[in-house]
Amino acid sequence: MTTAAVPQASLFTLDIPVPPRQSTSLATTAMLSSLSICQWSGYKYDPDASEELTSMHGAEKDAARVNKRLVPRSELEEITQAVGRARHDHDFLTLPWTDDGWRVLPAATYFEHCQKMQEHKAAVLSAVSKFIARYEDVVRNQSRLGTLRKVSDYPGMRQEGDTLRFVYPQELREKYSFATDVKPLPDANDFRVNIGDEERERLKKQIAESVQASLRASTRDLWQRLYDVVGHMSTRMAEYNSAEEGKKPRLYKSMVTNIVEIVDVLPRLNITADEELNRMTDTIRHSLLVDTEELRKSETLRTDTAKAAADIMQRMAAYMGLPAGSQVVS
Fold first, then answer.
1. Running along the chain, 330 residues long, what does each successive block of 10 average in pLDDT?
2. Do residues 238 and 260 both lie within one domain?
3. Can you give the residue range of the structural domain that contains 33?
4. What total number of domains does the chain contain?
5. How far apart are CA 285 and CA 280, in angstroms?
6. What is the pLDDT of residue 97?
7. Are residues 293 and 212 located together in one domain of the fold?
8. Quick count: other Cβ atoms within 10 Å of Cβ 142?
9. pTM
10. Would you put residue 15 in left (φ > 0), alpha (ψ -120 to 50) or beta?
């Protein structure tokens, strides 16, 4: 199954302005990047079992589908988690562009992205190799499927007499792949086609408008990332401060470390040079990066931090065009 990063739905009700194309020199400061990961799902649709099931219940043939889990979920868990981490870091170090899997990769995060993707590729392939090494035994032990088990459902497996054997490992290996790609951003000023001047100018304008629309989406994405982590802290601090002694929820370190991660990478992702975003990032860095251990000990620090988080959240909501008092659902 090939998956592609899809931009998250925006919280915004208003567009955030971005500098004009000439001010951003986008083509020299960023590129487009895609991450494509294929993996064996471990599921198989069984048309015979589906027909039998619907017939048993007097239902129409298309009323139900039997999708068999060919191996226990736990057997694929290491691969699934490694793939998930790769997708997370790819999305974290890039910005939305289109819905076809391409995302903006700023030059400032390029080398970090390359290193992370190499590490994740190695982790995914290592997990795949471990699974392939035990695959034959796993398949042989799938008595859990009863008569639903079919040798043909398992890539590389063949029946030899009374024994199941993993004869063609390559059939399973080919179900897995991990690839990244980069290409230049479109540039209206570099548009060269042998057509009439009027049509050429129309297409250049179309490209420029498309780039600006994508830049606005990228900027909104950064604001939303920041809003989410600040909103999470604001909600958690309010819950903690209002709870009775002995019933206070735990203040996890991730409440702060998630903010640290965002404010660390955000200046490098801010390809539109949004000054308001930079100022908000600095405010958050100076006001909310606190030690959770100290938060638990100091009522004064908890009160000040909760107020700062709530104030920053309201400022961000106002700038983003969100209703007053909007909260992040965690």
1. 37 46 61 95 93 92 93 96 98 87 91 97 97 95 88 94 92 96 76 54 67 80 94 92 88 94 93 90 94 91 94 90 58
2. yes
3. 21-183
4. 2
5. 9
6. 85
7. yes
8. 18
9. 0.79
10. beta
Specify whether 200 is located in the same domain as 257.
yes
pLDDT reported for residue 213: 77
CA distance 221 to 5: 13
Residue 247 has phi, psi (to 5 degrees) of -120, 10
How would you classify residue 25: left for phi > 0, otherwise alpha for psi between -120 and 50, otherwise beta? left
Whole-number Å distance between alpha carbons of 209 and 183? 19
Question: Residue 11: what pLDDT?
Answer: 40
Task: Assess if residue 65 is contained within a domain.
Answer: yes
183, 207, 237: which is the final residue of a domain?
183
The residue to which tokens 């958690």 are assigned: 236
- Are 52 and 173 members of one domain? yes
Q: Is residue 228 part of a domain?
A: yes
Residue 322: φ, ψ to 5°: -90, 155
Task: Tally the residues of the chain.
Answer: 330
76 and 158 belong to one structural domain? yes
